[in-house]
Design a protein that fits this description.
The structure holds two protein chains of two kinds. Chain A is mainly alpha-helical. Chain A contains 15 helices and eight strands. Helices cover 72% and strands 5% of the residues of chain A. In chain A, strand 4 (273-275) and strand 5 (280-282) form a beta hairpin. Chain A is globular and about 75 Å long. Chain A starts with a helix and ends in a 9-residue tail after the last helix. The model of chain A has no long low-confidence stretch (mean pLDDT 86). Chain B is globular, with a radius of gyration of 21 Å. Chain B has helices at 3-34, 43-72, 74-83, 85-107, 112-131, 133-137, 152-156, 159-187, 190-221, 223-230, 233-249, 263-285, 296-299, 303-331, 335-338, and strands at residues 142-143, 149-150, 288-290, 294-295. The chains are: A mainly alpha, B mainly alpha. The interface between A and B is large, with 71 and 72 residues. The structure holds CIS-heme D hydroxychlorin gamma-spirolactone and protoporphyrin IX containing FE (HEM) (2 copies). Chain A: Keywords: Cell membrane, Electron transport, Heme, Iron, Membrane, Metal-binding, Transmembrane, Transmembrane helix, Transport. Chain A: Its main location: membrane. Chain A: Belongs to the cytochrome ubiquinol oxidase subunit 1 family. Chain A: It is found in: Cell membrane.
Chain lengths: 452, 343
């Protein structure tokens, strides 16, 4: 039992750590691409400088994202051999195709970084597009495995044997598109709001109207635009995710909403904590009928409550809080971009008030927290299963034992990596402030092949 | 050929490609550490010029390898995953530190030296641990009576394990110095070329001695595979010949700039040597994945899954091949890259 808890904690921490870098690895290339395109359209050197600086940050982040991802991939077999045996037989395709996505990303990332001055401008854009596609595809494909865990398809178990395997049916399992879409869209939210955080912070630190202020302001504006659009799309798609839960994993939705009794016209509880003894959500705000409407687009929809399931199949009840936090952050981010739009375009004010600037600074960390909450909700909300109603977590875990020492070692290495990656980024960008890059770019147009 | 035989052949191909790429990669990291204070020879620059664009691609191969094992032999993946928990985790930890610090060392100039030391040293340990999978798969250190347990004490006191470890380290240094000699020649870095040619000449014989040590210890500890390998003795002898050809090629004519030897021929001959030797080893290992419990038949995946995976291999190869060629032409074959002024 204890070993199971260690295994879960160990894998959870690995994923929780990897996911920060992985998500930024999907999100930042899009922003680099946006900046490159802005540069081509406006011929404003600032955008080209942005693209260069973001690429540098991206390359450093990859230095942690790739090895931790390698750990994630191998640790799946080391910690959950029972799970991977089933996945190997039924759901190998996404892993396999993901390898090609990794290759595309790795090849063209190196080309974009180390061969930039030797390839044609259009080839730089093509390389960048391929890097972005590679990152997106790897995220979509790995998420497909996660989707399969919730909505398994494409095989049968007869007398404990896996038979009638249809790998493509498993690949296109019912929640693939919705789940993968959610991860992709939210990764773009994280990419843009994280850069917005830096830009807003730098604006607060430089004097209004200066060259540097203008530079960061341009960056903030494109980040808010892109981030706002994707935050909106993420919310719409998240609503669809919840409807999928209603259809395929009703106990997870019930736990997310703290709903115990099956009912039509079910209320939506926002905030608060689920209390299993009194079977209610304490200190939450109830919106009557809303849950039924959200789950099935009509107030008559019957939403199944936890009491319809044996208690040993209940997901942990704290997922309610995680779910609320994720949705809350998502709504806040949409609001932030809307306020920025109104302030800037409708009221035509030339600068944002301080409190709003600090809210932009908070946006990046919040979006990363939303990612963490979302994943922990999705994975722990699936408990006690690794493959819903087919394979339990207990039956997936390794029998080797002695996980304690390894756990400490892995956590220490993540700590070292976390500290050093922050120090390296700070070091590099302190050494190379934007002023320096701007002057360099203005001095030698020919250094940036895109300007031709 | 049965499906499981096709699958194990593909896997063998991946292992071989990864082994070659990884030795180059880890070795280059090590040399870049050794010569970090020899500004004159540019040996570190050459190593970094090779390493910077390639490490990511090399790393992807190890992921491809692991994925290939569990998608083609999920049954074996179960046993391998259980048995390799400790060695596998150690490899992962070292690999994580190495990759990250490699990237950091190119960004944080003032800290390049300490970071390069981490990269260099971990780069020698990793190949030694990776190759330990082979002696483990020979069976004597695994207890199958109560599930599957690896006896770490028994493994790490066994001469067989250390023969493999030493062989991996020596091969890493040998292959990488040969390749870097070739790379320096193409880059017209005379001093670096001399250094790497000398290193290859010293370490080559050591790697062959290590190979003999493996056979010697195998005779005692894993007799079954030793006997089977000996059935293919003629091929092993041809493989040895490849090594001699490589050695000879390093003494061949001096070119106009005074660079002695034809490292490209040596690289090809040594690769040939390793192909043959690992073919014999792989053949002797069949049908076992882990002796004597797991065979390629018992671990094989569902036939439908295999078909689907096999098709993606073909499609993936067709899509990726031009990318690899382009990559190669930019970093291995472009004079502007190879002969750039060293910073
Ligand atoms: C910036 C990040 C972010 C934001 C703003 C949101 N989400 Fe989310 N959500 C994720 C990031 C995320 C995620 C980390 O990507 C998850 C975890 C697992 C997954 O598939 O996506 C996720 C999972 C996830 C699930 C669970 C799917 C499952 O368990 O299979 C639901 C129902 C929602 N989300 C719904 C929403 C709604 C209604 C949002 C309204 C604003 C929302 N999410 C915003
Ligand atoms: C798509 C890829 C993923 C797969 C295939 C996957 C699979 C698994 C598996 C097999 C477990 C062990 C069983 C369990 O305790 O639930 C697990 C646990 C866990 N995973 Fe995921 N996961 C994925 C993504 C993630 C991500 C990206 C995170 C990021 C935070 C994450 C967070 C966790 C956590 C926190 C646990 C521990 C669960 C617990 O303590 O109950 N997972 N996941
Ligand atoms: C169990 C879950 C996961 C596993 C096993 C996994 C595995 C990996 C591996 C092996 C790498 C390194 C690739 C390389 O060597 O080039 C990697 C990197 C990456 N992963 Fe994860 N990953 C998981 C979850 C996720 C999720 C949920 C996302 C997206 C939100 C994601 C997105 C990425 C991205 C963008 C990279 C960056 C580098 C690249 O694509 O080469 N991963 N992951």
């Amino acid at each position: 039992m204890d070993e199971l808890v260690i295994a879960r904690s160990m894998f959870g921490i690995t994923m929780g750590f990897h996911i920060i870098f992985a998500t930024l690895g999907v999100g930042i290339p899009l922003m680099i691409l946006v900046a490159e395109i802005m540069f081509q359209r406006t011929n404003d050197l600032d955008y080209s400088v942005m693209a260069k600086r973001w690429t540098k940050a991206f390359a450093v982040l990859l230095g942690v994202g790739i090895p931790t991802g390698t750990i994630a991939g191998v640790q799946l077999s080391l910690l959950w051999p029972g799970f991977m045996e089933v996945i190997g037989r039924v759901m190998a395709l996404p892993f396999q195709i993901e390898i090609y996505a990794f290759f595309v990303e790795a090849l063209f990332m190196s080309i974009y970084v180390y061969a930039a001055s030797r390839i044609a401008p259009w080839m730089r854009i093509v390389s960048l597009v391929l890097v972005a596609i590679g990152g997106l595809a790897s995220a979509v494909l790995i998420t497909n495995v996660h989707a399969f865990e919730g909505t398994p398809a494409g095989f049968e178990i007869i007398n404990g044997q896996i038979t009638n395997v249809d790998p493509w049916k498993a690949f296109f399992n019912p929640s693939f598109f919705v789940t993968a879409g959610h991860v992709a869209l939210s990764a773009y939210v994280v990419g843009s709001f994280t850069i917005a955080t830096v830009s807003a912070f730098k604006m607060l630190r430089s004097s209004f109207g200066s060259r540097i202020y203008a530079f960061h302001r341009k960056s903030l504006m494109i980040c808010l635009l892109v981030g706002g659009v994707f935050a909106f799309l993420t919310a719409i798609n998240g609503h669809e995710s919840a409807q999928k839960l209603h259809e395929y994993q009703p106990e997870k939705l019930a736990a997310a909403e703290g709903l115990f009794e099956t009912q039509t016209h079910a209320p939506l509880s926002v905030g608060g904590f689920t209390d299993p003894v009194t079977q209610e959500v304490k200190w939450g705000i109830e919106i009557p009928w809303a849950l039924s409407f959200l789950a099935g687009n009509s107030f008559d929809t019957e939403v199944i409550g936890l009491n319809d399931f044996p208690e040993e199949y209940w997901p942990p009840l704290f997922v309610h809080t995680l779910f609320n936090a994720m949705v809350g952050i998502g709504s806040l981010l949409i609001l932030l971009s809307l306020v920025a739009y109104v302030w800037n375009k409708l009221l035509k004010k030339d600068r944002f008030p301080k409190w709003l600037m600090w809210a932009f600074v908070a946006g990046g960390p919040l979006s990363i927290m939303a990612i963490e909450f979302g994943w922990i909700f999705a994975c722990t909300g699936r408990q006690p299963w690794t493959i819903y109603r087919i394979l339990s977590t207990e039956d997936s875990v390794t029998t080797s034992g002695n996980l304690g020492t390894l756990f400490i070692l892995f956590v220490s290495v993540y700590a070292i990596l976390a500290v050093s990656v922050v120090l390296v980024l700070l070091y590099y960008f302190k050494r190379n402030p934007p002023e320096k890059d701007i002057t360099k770019a203005e001095a030698s147009h020919k250094d940036i092949p895109l300007s031709t | 050929m049965t499906q499981s035989l096709i699958a194990i052949t593909i896997l063998w191909g991946f292992v071989f490609i990864y082994a070659v790429m990884a030795t180059m990669d880890f070795g280059a990291g090590f040399w870049s550490m050794i010569y970090i204070n020899h500004d004159k020879t540019k040996a570190t620059n050459i190593a970094n010029r090779y390493l910077s664009p390639t490490w990511e691609v090399t790393n992807t191969f190890i992921v491809a390898l692991v994925v290939a094992v569990y998608s083609m032999f999920p049954g074996a993946a179960y046993s391998l995953g259980t048995v390799l928990l400790v060695p596998g985790s150690l490899i992962l930890l070292l690999l994580a530190l190495r990759s990250a610090f490699l990237v950091f060392s190119h960004v944080a100039d003032d800290y390049r030296k300490p970071l390069t030391y981490v990269t260099g040293i971990t780069g020698l340990l990793i190949p030694g641990l990776l190759i330990s999978v082979l002696p483990i798969s020979h069976g004597p250190y695994i207890d199958f009576s109560d599930g599957q347990t690896l006896h770490l004490g028994k493994l790490f006191t066994s001469p067989h394990e250390y023969a493999f470890f030493g062989f991996a380290v020596a091969s890493t240094l040998f292959l990488s110095s040969l390749l870097l000699a070739d790379y320096s020649k193409a880059s017209k870095e005379f001093e670096a070329f001399k250094v790497y040619r000398r290193d290859a000449l010293i370490i080559g014989p050591i790697s062959v001695v290590m190979a003999f040590l493996i056979m010697f210890t195998m005779k005692n500890e894993a007799r079954w595979i030793y006997d089977r390998m000996m059935d293919d003795l003629p091929i092993l002898l041809v493989s040895l010949l490849g090594f001699l050809v490589a050695g000879g090629a390093l003494f061949l004519p001096t070119n106009k700039e005074g660079m002695k030897g034809m490292p490209r021929v040596a690289v090809i001959a040594v690769t040939f040597q390793y192909v043959l030797a690992s073919y014999v080893y792989g053949r002797a290992h069949l049908p076992y994945i882990i002796y004597p419990e797991v065979t390629i038949q018992s671990g094989f995946t569902d036939p439908n899954s295999f078909k689907a995976v096999f098709i993606t291999y073909i499609v993936g190869f067709i899509i990726l091949f031009p990318g690899f060629v382009y990559f190669w032409s930019l970093f291995m074959n472009d004079k502007r890259y190879l002969r750039q002024k060293s910073e």
